[in-house]
Amino acid sequence: MSDESPSVLDGSTESDLPMRKPRKGIYVLPNMITLAALFGGFYAIVMAMNGRFENAAIGVFCAMVLDSLDGRVARMTGTQSAFGEQMDSLSDMVSFGAAPALIIYEWALRGMGKLGWVAAFVYCASAALRLARFNTNIGVVDKRYFQGLPSPAAAAIVTGFIWVLDDAGFKNVSKIDWLAWGAVAVTLYAGLTMVTNVPFYSFKTIGHRKSVPFVFMVLIALAIAAVNLHPPLVLFGAFCVYGLSGYAVYGWRRFKGKPVSLIATSTDEPDERGLH
Question: In this structure, what DSSP letter does residue 141 have?
Fold first, then answer.
């Protein structure tokens, strides 16, 4: 039997053979961060099921921090991929859509019958719709603003509300009428604001600058110090201000006669390009 390769026997050369496509791999670092964010949302759900609502809120806030890192790490290391985009979007749906809805339901809405689970579902569905719209509009929306309240901020408002009151000693909230109704209001506000066209500042332009003024670092230090004074109250207050800021921007633009639409580059139907 000849030791020659088939390419020599049939008269062809190696260059004539079809090239084998390289196997597609998965970048480890950004996807590890995304998985850690997903774990934060899953952990929050488990803690809520066990009645440990402070831990549940902390889990969601940890997921927020990790979610803010994965896309930046991917861009900085050149490890962006379609897989990572889809993974990030699914992680967001769990951590900032399903988790806050289930936590607020377990905390306060369970005793309100159909109204309770309907309010929780409205929030969950709004998060899904907001993420889908973000994915499809990413190429045509002004990058300085988010179209509607971003889902991490909405989750921070809902779980921050729980964290503050749990830290204040309120237990069995479903039996306290005014708190249960307050939970309904907060849940619906956060959920429905996600699917509005109200502009919320994205802070993306700050992250793209190579350098920032010295005073900016001083402000960061002051912010860290303020959070350490009382994390539940400070974080909840900050996200409440952000959750109202979009309506202030919208009203100011209308008052000044400026366009309020965030569609910046095209009026055609956008392509589906994925998150980040």
Answer: B
Residues 6+ apart with CB under 8 A from 71: 30, 88, 275, 276
* pLDDT band at 140; cut points 50, 70, 90: confident
- The three-class DSSP label of residue 147 is strand
Question: Structure tokens of 175?
Answer: 């039996």
The rounded distance, in Å, linking the Cα atoms of 73 and 79 is 8
DSSP SS3 for 148:
coil
What are the CA-CA distances from residue 160 to residues 53, 54, 137, 196, 235 (Å)? 10, 9, 29, 21, 7
> Whole-model pTM?
0.82
Question: Which 8-state DSSP code applies to residue 171?
Answer: -
Count of helix runs (H) and strand runs (E) in the chain: 11, 2
pLDDT in tens, 175-192: 888 999 999 999 999 999
Residue reference for tokens 């609502």 = 53
- Torsion sign across C-alpha atoms 171, 177, 182, 188: positive
Supply the DSSP string of 202-246, one letter for each residue: --HHHHT-S---HHHHHHHHHHHHHHHH-HHHHHHHHHHHHHHHH
Total length of the chain: 276
Position 184, amino acid: V
**φ, ψ dihedrals at 159, nearest 5°:** -75, -30
Q: Domain residues of the chain, as ranges? A: 101-256
Cβ 69 vs Cβ 123: under 8 Å: no
Tokens of 230: 């009382």
Residue from 84, 79, 86, 43 nearest 61 by CA: 43
Instruction: Please give the residue that has the higher pLDDT: either 201 or 2.
Output: 201
Residue located via tokens 């929030």: 123
